[in-house]
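Re: that backbone. Tokens:
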């Protein structure tokens, strides 16, 4: 009995959601495959959030994150030397941190990835030695290509485009949000690689960086990835690449390293609000097909609305003919209702009028569609159009 009630409640909820969402916001157009407030648009996947770090304890990643280092010694196997031979790294795991061994060289992940949200925490040595680029220097290389600088710039000036959290050689950070040497610094990075097609740049790629919760890079263009002493120019990146950490001669420590892959952008065929006309047409055709498949499992008014709703995405002669026939049947049935019973059908009629008005507004049905005119006249006759 309890199971049956749950199913009934779920079915009722789905019906209410459909009634609220269908024939409501502006219809799909040439570059927007979904209507405004479209209940047919996929729901966001559930992600359980993680926890924030403290100086004493690293936080936990969100549920869909891919962990690259959480402090366990065996996770060193996820990393290797960046030398061509790909030999095991000489970096060490100490007290839950991945620590650079000066002179051992860069390290990289065995795993490769591209667009992502990256979380990484680092700490420069508490004993201050050196200045400018010689103090607590390392680097985080997205795809092994673009460096987000790691440097102890707490009361330590250097050239601005080599400052901590700069996109090295490209853009300084908007602020210095570093904590004191020896304390853990938190980088949260959103990375989008450049997109090229047939040698032409379609998207230059961007990086957004937060340092200890402060935005310091706001959608910064990659300009080819940057580099040392030489200005970089736009260039294609590989499909995927490793995360690299730099050995710059300082025993910098890292902890709590994880990433979340990001969905494709529209220019790569991803599902976004604004898409190319070709991609939009394909997406709209797919949505219409799903709605018509759904309609095939329904009966009566529910079938009618689903078929007519499918016309908002892509026309189809068979769906249109059946939808219009069911609409005519609905209007005839209402007109045949005894006068003393009409009030009980008020909500049905108003829902029908709303759907017909929407379809006519966006020229998906003619304004003089007979069932629409019949129900418009009935609503006016009954005074149901008057606001109370």
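Recovered sequence:
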């Amino acid at each position: 009995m309890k199971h049956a009630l749950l199913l009934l409640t779920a079915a009722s909820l789905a019906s209410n959601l459909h009634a609220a969402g269908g024939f409501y916001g502006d219809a799909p157009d040439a570059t927007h495959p979904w209507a405004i407030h479209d209940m047919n648009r996929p729901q966001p996947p559930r992600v359980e959030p993680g926890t924030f770090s403290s100086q004493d304890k690293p936080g936990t990643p969100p549920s869909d994150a891919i962990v690259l280092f959480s402090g366990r010694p065996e996770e060193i196997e996820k990393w290797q030397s960046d030398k061509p031979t790909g030999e095991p790294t000489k970096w060490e795991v100490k007290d839950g941190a991945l620590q650079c061994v000066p002179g051992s060289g860069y390290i990289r992940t065995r795993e490769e990835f591209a667009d992502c949200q990256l979380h990484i925490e680092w700490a420069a040595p508490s004993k201050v030695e050196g200045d400018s680029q010689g103090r607590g220097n390392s680097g985080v290389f997205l795809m092994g290509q673009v460096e987000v600088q790691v440097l102890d710039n707490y009361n330590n000036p250097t050239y601005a485009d080599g400052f901590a959290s700069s996109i090295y050689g490209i853009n300084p950070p908007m602020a210095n949000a570093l904590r004191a040497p020896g304390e853990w610094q938190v980088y949260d990075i959103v990375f989008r690689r450049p997109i090229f097609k047939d040698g032409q740049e379609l998207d230059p790629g961007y990086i957004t960086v937060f340092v200890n919760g402060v935005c310091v890079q706001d959608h910064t263009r990659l300009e080819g990835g940057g580099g040392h002493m030489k200005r970089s120019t736009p260039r294609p990146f590989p499909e995927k690449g490793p995360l690299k950490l730099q050995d710059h001669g300082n025993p910098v420590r890292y902890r709590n390293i994880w990433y979340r892959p990001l969905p494709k952008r529209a220019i790569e065929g991803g599902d976004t609000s604004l898409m190319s006309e070709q991609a939009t047409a394909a997406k709209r055709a797919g949505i219409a097909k799903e709605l018509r498949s759904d309609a095939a499992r329904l009966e009566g008014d529910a079938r009618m609305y689903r078929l007519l709703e499918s016309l908002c995405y892509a026309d189809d002669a068979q769906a249109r003919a059946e939808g219009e026939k069911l609409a005519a049947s609905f209007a005839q049935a209402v007109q045949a209702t005894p006068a003393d019973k009409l009030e009980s059908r008020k909500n049905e009629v108003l829902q029908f009028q709303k759907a017909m008005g929407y379809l006519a507004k966006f020229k998906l049905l003619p304004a003089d569609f007979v069932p629409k005119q019949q129900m418009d006249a009935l609503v006016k006759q009954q005074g149901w159009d008057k606001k109370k």
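Residues 1-20 have pLDDT under 50 and may be disordered. The first strand starts at residue 66 and ends at 69.
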